[in-house]
């Protein structure tokens, strides 16, 4: 029988660092966002008004799974609602439990949530990957834990399935777009010699964890001098509300061997950047930017093109361009992937029940055809 121990203080997680690392390595497609290093930094910067609930799942005395959760107060049309969810907060596309048997881990966690005093009004497992949707992992786990589960759609993300060569990728693009890439590349090259530097340290375990603050500073300067420097939204690389967070996660990603920083130089001057994380051939595009005086020449398009070409050479398998801004990503993506959610609405919580009907109305009633996968059905709702 699995049992669950709950940890509510971020400092206490240091005692299970080795177990966390082991389970992270055993979890398929686990990302930088699911590392303890990222969670500790995130919590230091944004956890003040949240309540941490990390559920440690044990088989006898052996840790077999970890489910990081947080209670966060969110504003809705009905007023503030306390939501129990994963601590990702839109920084990435996907999240989930750590462990080999994630269904058993999450099922035990959901049972613990049902049996302990409720400090939330909505239990919403968001940022679910396609495999989770296909296998009904979170839905069955929530049901196994004795909670009524409802499938839904959280968002969608733009993906590039990276082929063996740049030529094969280009062959999938429209003639018009291929011509646009060539035209913009010529424009940029007229400004001077164009070079790309892609920095992927192997991590401290390989004695290669230098964060290269000089390169980070170049990306930061580009962001600061572009439109991002004047942005009122606190999520750009140079915004004072998050710049400290970015610096700390930059160091952690470098030391873990998951940093992927691309810089484009024109005539020796840093002119554009793509800031990513990566693991096992999967790249997540976090931020990007370019100098305003060369932006109009199309260096953003050129930077994306040379980065994809380099990923083909490196044998990367997938590039996640992230959610939102589909109009800017449509020419590059090879497919749109759903980001799922599974939600429990407590019966005697009025706000929760109103939100249930609101979510139902927004997503529509599922009508899965026999020839559709669960993920295809979910995409149809977007």
Automatic annotation (TrEMBL):
SUPFAM superfamilies linked = Acyl-CoA N-acyltransferases (Nat) (SSF55729)
Its domain of life reads: Bacteria
What Pfam families has UniProt attached to this entry?
Acetyltransf_6 (PF13480)
Family annotation (Gene3D superfamilies): 3.40.630.30
Which residue range or ranges hold the BioF2-like acetyltransferase domain? 176-329
Q: What name appears for this protein in its UniProt entry? A: BioF2-like acetyltransferase domain-containing protein
């Amino acid at each position: 029988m699995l049992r669950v121990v709950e940890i509510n203080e971020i400092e206490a997680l240091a005692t299970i660092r080795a177990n966390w690392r082991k389970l992270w390595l055993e979890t398929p497609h686990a990302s930088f966002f699911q590392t303890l290093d990222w969670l500790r930094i995130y919590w230091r910067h944004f956890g003040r008004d949240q309540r941490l609930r990390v559920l440690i799942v044990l088989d006898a005395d052996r840790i077999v799974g970890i489910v990081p959760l947080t209670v966060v107060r969110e504003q809705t049309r009905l007023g503030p609602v306390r939501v129990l969810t994963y601590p990702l907060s839109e920084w990435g596309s996907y999240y989930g439990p750590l462990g080999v048997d994630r269904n058993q881990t999450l099922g035990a966690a959901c049972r613990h949530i049902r049996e302990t005093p409720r400090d939330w009004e909505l239990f919403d497992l968001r940022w679910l990957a396609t495999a989770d949707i296909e296998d009904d992992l979170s839905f069955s786990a929530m049901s196994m834990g004795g909670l009524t589960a409802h499938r839904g759609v959280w968002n969608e993300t733009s993906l590039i399935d990276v082929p063996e060569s740049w030529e094969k990728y280009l062959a999938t693009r429209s003639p018009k777009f291929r011509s646009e890439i060539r035209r913009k590349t010529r424009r940029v090259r007229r400004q001077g010699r164009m070079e790309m530097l892609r920095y992927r340290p192997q991590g401290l375990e390989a004695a290669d964890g230098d964060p290269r603050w000089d390169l980070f500073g170049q990306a930061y300067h580009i962001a600061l001098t572009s439109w991002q420097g004047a942005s009122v939204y606190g999520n750009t690389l140079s915004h004072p509300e998050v710049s400290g967070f970015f610096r700390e996660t930059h160091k952690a990603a470098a030391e873990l061997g998951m940093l992927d920083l691309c810089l484009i130089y024109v005539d020796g001057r840093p002119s554009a950047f793509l800031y990513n994380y990566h693991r096992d051939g999967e790249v997540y595009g976090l931020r990007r930017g370019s100098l305003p005086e060369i932006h109009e020449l199309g260096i953003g398009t050129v930077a994306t093109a040379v980065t994809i070409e380099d990923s083909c050479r490196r044998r990367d398998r997938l590039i996640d361009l992230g959610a939102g801004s589909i109009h800017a990503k449509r020419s590059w993506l090879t497919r749109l992937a759903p980001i799922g959610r599974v939600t429990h609405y407590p019966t005697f919580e009025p706000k929760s029940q109103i939100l249930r009907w609101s979510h139902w109305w927004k997503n529509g009633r599922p009508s899965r055809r026999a020839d559709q996968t669960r993920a295809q059905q979910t995409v149809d709702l977007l």
